[in-house]
């Protein structure tokens, strides 16, 4: 997840906007969320998916701790 403020003149609105785009960096769909509290100053949040191998390795380590 990445969170940052941006200055964009084209964002002369107040509210929220979101979209999903394909990212070549992580080879997955990434959610982009922009929340404008003030015109031209959106908070940009990018939500990256968790890789399947990360979930699997976390689950295996959790199983070892429980046993």
Description:
- This protein has about 70 residues and is of the alpha+beta class.
- The protein has one domain.
- Helices cover about 20% and strands about 45% of the residues.
- It is built from one helix and four strands, in the order ββββα.
- The protein has one helix at about 50-65; strands at about 1-5, 15-25, 30-40, 40-45.
- It has a four-stranded antiparallel sheet, with no helix packed on it.
- The two termini are about 30 Å apart.
- The model has no long low-confidence stretch (mean pLDDT about 80).
Overall SS class: alpha+beta
Q: Write the H/E string, N to C.
A: EEEEH
* Shape estimate: elongated
Task: Count every helix, treating DSSP H or I runs of 4 or more residues as helices.
Answer: 1
Can you tell me the residue ranges where pLDDT is under 50 for at least 5 consecutive residues? none
- The N- to C-terminal Cα distance equals 32 Å
In total, the number of strands is: 4
What is the averaged pLDDT score?
79
Tell me the major beta sheet.
Answer: 4 strands, antiparallel
Radius of gyration: 17 Å
How do the strands and helices of this protein lay out in sequence?
Blueprint: E1 2-5, E2 15-23, E3 28-38, E4 41-47, H1 52-66
Concise description?
With 67 residues, this protein is α+β, with helices and mostly antiparallel strands. It is 22% helix and 46% strand.
Give the tags.
1 helix; 22% helix; four-stranded antiparallel sheet; 4 strands; alpha+beta; elongated; 67 residues
């Amino acid at each position: 997840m990445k969170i940052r403020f941006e200055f964009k003149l084209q964002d002369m609105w107040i509210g929220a906007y979101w979209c999903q785009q394909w990212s070549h960096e992580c080879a997955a769909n990434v959610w982009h969320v922009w929340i404008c509290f003030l015109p031209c100053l959106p908070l940009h949040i990018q939500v990256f998916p968790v890789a399947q191998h990360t979930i699997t390795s976390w689950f295996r380590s959790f199983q070892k701790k429980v046993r």
